Amino acid sequence: MSQTVRIRKSVSVALLTAILQRNTIMTSEDEVAGVMRLCASLISKGASGQKDGASGESSGTGGAAYLSTADEGPAATPIDEEDLAEEQGLLARLVHLVRGPDVVTQISLLTVMRDAFSQGGDLVRYTYPAVISGATRLLGPFAAIKPDSKDDRADWLRKVRQLCRFVQVTTSTLVERSSGSSDTAELALQLFLMSAQAAAMSPAFRGEPTLEEAAYEFIVQAFTVYEEHINESRAQFQSLILVINALHASRNFSAENYETLAAKCVQHGSRLLKRPDQTRLAFACAQLWWKTLPDSELIPPPAEPGQDEAEAERVHSERMEFEK
Fold this sequence. Notes:
The protein has 324 residues and is mainly α. The chain has helices at residues 5-21, 29-38, 40-43, 45-48, 81-93, 103-117, 124-136, 139-144, 150-176, 182-201, 209-229, 233-249, 255-269, 275-286, 295-298, 309-323; strands spanning 65-67, 77-79. A two-stranded antiparallel sheet has the order 1-2. Helix 6 (103-117) runs antiparallel to helix 7, helix 6 packs parallel to helix 9 (150-176) and helix 9 (150-176) packs parallel to helix 11 (209-229). The N and C termini lie far apart (72 Å). 32% of the residues are buried.
């Protein structure tokens, strides 16, 4: 006799718990795919009884999850939401066990994991944030391996562009499958801003149009989430503060792009419902035109081998003037 869905899920939870407790590292696509197959009963939305994966829609039961199997008869058994969140949280923790030998392999491993999680329909609200955070953290290692030669740099930029595209698509999918959830929308906005900061703050990315474009697009996407999915006044105020903070911390935007995004913050702030919130946003936006650079950027770096110290200081002064 075939196993019931409940038994399969219990077995999957036990295996998943053992993998996490033993800190079993996954370093290849086959290993990731194998673990995902073992956890299929937890990932699949059909296994949660909320609707088959083909439609991708909710069951129309007022948001409650239900379980119905042939062995247990036609009666639907409600699934505890806390249990569901705990199961999905275990799945999300798997992302931290994916460690490829290099950053390019790591992207491939995260892609395999994301594609597996996508079978869960709107359950990706639990699992996708971990995937997005893991991908965003790769921008740091990419900055550290920036090549000097022009030919190698073209390949490097292509891989960075691929990573930024991965983050953007995954976060956009998270928003699309949130079913109008304001909490998920706010989380997606924060993930877009986190990605924008990662792309707009590293000195290695300065002067790279590809990275500036990616950071700009991340903030534009955050504004889109704000406009379309965040409606409560307090949440709007807090979201705009987050955008302002991310923009204020940026270092790699051109003057034109920076002015455009800052003006967008002012525009949205003036449309807030409550007058006190409008006033506080206006004050916060004013800081965008009065940026204080950290000491590490105010102090001129040492001249490179073969470079005149006066020339190095002049270049640094011009860059500081541009940052202002």
